[in-house]
Amino acid sequence: MAEFTTAVFQNEFLPDGGTDVNAIVTISCTGAGTAGQSGSGDAGEIIIVDTSGSMGPATMAAAKDAAQAALAEIVDGTWFAVIAGADRAMLAYPPVTSGPALVQMNAQTRQEASAAIGRFVGSGGTAISTWLDLAGQIFASVPQVTQRHALLLTDGENRERPGRLDEAINRATGYFQCDCRGAGTDWQVAEIRRIAQALLGTVDIIPRPDQMRAQFQEIMRASMARGVADAKLRIWTPQGAQVLFVRQVAPTLEDLTDRGTAVNPLTRDYPTGAWADESRDYHVAVRVAAKAIGQEQLAARVQLALGENAVTQGLIKATWSNNSELTTRIDQQVAHYTGQTELAAMIQEGLAAKAAGDEATATTKLGRAVQLAAETGNDEATSKLRKVVDVENEADGTVRLKRAVDKADEMALDTASTKTTRVRKDPTGS
Questions:
Q1: Which residues does the UniProt record annotate as the domain VWFA (predicted)?
Q2: pLDDT in tens, 129-145
Q3: CA distance 286 to 244
């Protein structure tokens, strides 16, 4: 049975008149087990492969091989289906036209699905909204499937009227999770990131066809290891308090602030999706009414809830003090993740400015990104930034844009911008 623990990292001391409390809440899970085997419902997997005409022979061959390799990672008994996506979505497997559109994995269905994937041929355009909508319909056809995950691969830009993809994303949000991968460099990072972030998944580039198989296997293994089907981050705040923001800050950045749903007037639930054996960090900021020097207050209670039951909790506190040595200290965790959040913004904004031809803004923002990556110890970001800019002074963020940059390197920097690094922790309370 899964076990959860919580640790809180904060400076609880506020100066006279202080109102804003920041904390990093780390939630860890052990004993998660295997997807669909916790007794809370079955697990379902859908593999969605771009079969549009833009998929060249090498990419299509790699996609077939990768999808077949992903099938091998799906645990027997798991419900699954395969979608071929072009300007419309087609249920490639199982071969049904009505009734349940998922089948359970076993040796025979794995072989049949693999054969269906082997028959994929690239043709048509790209309409990703239809892929997401069909996935939702397929999951809905088997009500006992309560843990729903999709793996989506595309190699091109979505070709639909403005707004249609966002409408489909909205329909899928909260219903299934989706990890997204882009093959090559003809797809739009921002577009696919919107899908992944809304559907609590990941996004990354697969620059070369020979890298596809390993990524698909890794994604499916990770999904199969999520034995906790769904959990909510439940935050209580006292009367009159305001939640300023709620962000997952590790292992990736995800802003959950606008995704809270009311449990009661003082409590909101924020989605976290399925869990494996892992730790996640959340940055919670709360504004409370200022109190007199020496007074203490519980600023927030942060729980992880499975259904209606809270399985772990941490307390965020506020204490008003006139000791400046206490009130001016910034918690190491809060400072670190504040920097990581700014780093992601600087990378994305800098690349957008570069694409728009605004080299001055791009240089400034990517220079700040280099500085932040060094300060927060994000070696992956530093390495990827150095493929896009020439660094003259890392400490003060002085850089020059490289004249010739491989598009894949820019896209790799963009997709990795929301991946964060951790620092060693010394909890101040829990």
A1: 42-220
A2: 999 999 999 999 999 99
A3: 5
92's tokens: 């490639």
* Cβ neighbours for 6, distance < 8 A, ≥ 6 positions apart: 25, 26, 27, 28, 302, 304, 312, 313, 314, 430
Span 288-309, pLDDT tens digits? 999 999 999 999 999 999 999 9
Q: Phi and psi at residue 333, in whole multiples of 5°?
A: -65, -45
CATH class of 334-418: mainly alpha
Query: CA–CA separation, 94 vs 112, rounded Å?
Result: 8
What are the structure tokens assigned to 231, written together? 């959990």
User: Domain segments of the chain: what residues?
Assistant: 3-28+231-271+286-329, 42-224, 334-418
Measured between alpha carbons, how far is 27 from 29 in angstroms, rounded to an integer?
7
Taking residue 140's Cβ as centre, other Cβ atoms within 10 Å add up to 14
Indicate the angle between helix axes 332-355 and 407-415, nearest 10 degrees: 150
What is d(CA 209, CA 308) in angstroms, rounded to the nearest whole number? 44
Average pLDDT, rounded, for the chain: 96
In CATH, what number does 42-224 get? 3.40.50.410
- Cα–Cα distance between 371 and 397 in angstroms, integer? 5
| DSSP secondary structure string for all residues of 272-333 | EEEE-SEEEEEEEEEE-----TT-EEEEEEEEEEETTEEEEEEEEEEEE-S-HHHHTPPPHH
Tokens of 338: 């504040």
Architecture of the domain defined by 3-28+231-271+286-329 = Sandwich (2.60)
Residue 38: pLDDT band (50, 70, 90) is: confident
∠ Cα 6 310 200 (to 5°)? 75
Nearest-angstrom CA–CA distance, 124 and 142? 30
Given a contact cutoff of 8 angstroms between Cβ atoms, the answer to whether 92 and 82 are in contact is yes
- Classify strands 177-183 and 203-206 as parallel, antiparallel or unpaired: parallel
Statement: residue 429 has pLDDT above 80: no
Per-residue pLDDT tens for 62-80? 999 999 999 999 999 999 9
